[in-house]
Amino acid sequence: MARFFIDTLPAAGECCVLTGENAEHARVLRLRPGESVTLCDGAGTDCLCTVKEGLTLLAGPALPCPAEPKTAVSLWLAFPKADKAEHVIQKATELGASELVLFPSRYCVSRPEGKALEKKLERWQKIARSAAEQSGRGMIPAVRAVDSFRAALQQAAEADLPILFYENEEQLCLREALGSLTGSPVEAVHVSLMTGAEGGFSGEEIAQAREAGLQICTLGPRILRCETAPLAGLTAVLYALEEMD
Length: 245
Known about the structure:
By secondary structure, the chain is of the alpha/beta class. The protein folds into two domains: 2-64, CATH 2.40.240.20; 72-240, 3-Layer(aba) Sandwich (Alpha/beta knot), CATH 3.40.1280. It has seven helices and eleven strands. The chain has helices spanning 20-29, 84-95, 114-135, 149-156, 174-178, 203-212, 229-240, and strands at 2-5, 15-17, 36-40, 45-53, 56-64, 72-78, 99-103, 142-145, 161-165, 190-195, 215-217. The strands form two sheets. A six-stranded parallel beta sheet has the order 8-7-6-10-9-11, sandwiched between helices. Strands 1-3-4-5-2 form a five-stranded mixed beta sheet. The longest helix is centred in the middle third of the chain and has 22 residues, at 114-135. It is elongated. The mean pLDDT is 94.
C-alpha cells in the first residue's frame, strides 16, 4: 500500500489533495479510484484513505502506526567514506532507528563541512524519508550532524542507555549492557548507539567516552565494518527489547 507523509492529517470523511513530491510519487504509482493509501503525520499517526480520483483522497479515521517501535534508538555514526552513510541511513530507517547523527572522530577520512555537508544532509534526509515510506514507518528519522567528537559524546550521553561499540572491548557485551531493560516490555526508553569510522576509535577517544558516561561494549569476537556495526547493534537492541516480535 502506498504511503505518504504530510504535515496535517485530514479529519475522517474529509477530502484532501496530494501536492509536491507526494503528487509526483502518486503519479508514478498511477493510483486508481478505489485504491487504498495511507497518510502519515510523521509523528506516529496513520490515516487510511481511499483514492477518489486523480490526486484526491477521501480520509478515514486516524490510528496509531503499528510499525513504530516504542523504544527510541539513536545511531551516532562517525563519518564514513564514500556512500556508506547512505546505506546505513536507508537500512537503519527500515529497521526502526529514531535518529541518525554523524560526527567527526580521529580516524575519519571523510570530514564534510559547510555547503558540502548541507548537501549531504539534504540527500540523507530524503533517503530516510523514502525508506520510512517504503517500510511503513510512522515517523521519519531526523538525520543531522554535530561538529565535534566531544559534542557527540555529550549529546549521546543524554540517553537512558548510551553505548559505544568498540572492537577492542573484551569485558562488557551488549546483552549485559542492556541489563534491566530486557525481560519485559519497555515504555519510552531512549538508547543511543555510537560506532566508529573505518579506523575505529583511538584509546584517547574511548577514555573520553567512558568519562562522558557511555558504556563501552563489544559486538562480539568478529570485526565488523563501519557500515555493518550500527545495523547489527540496532537490530540486536530492538530484538532484545521485543520490538521485532
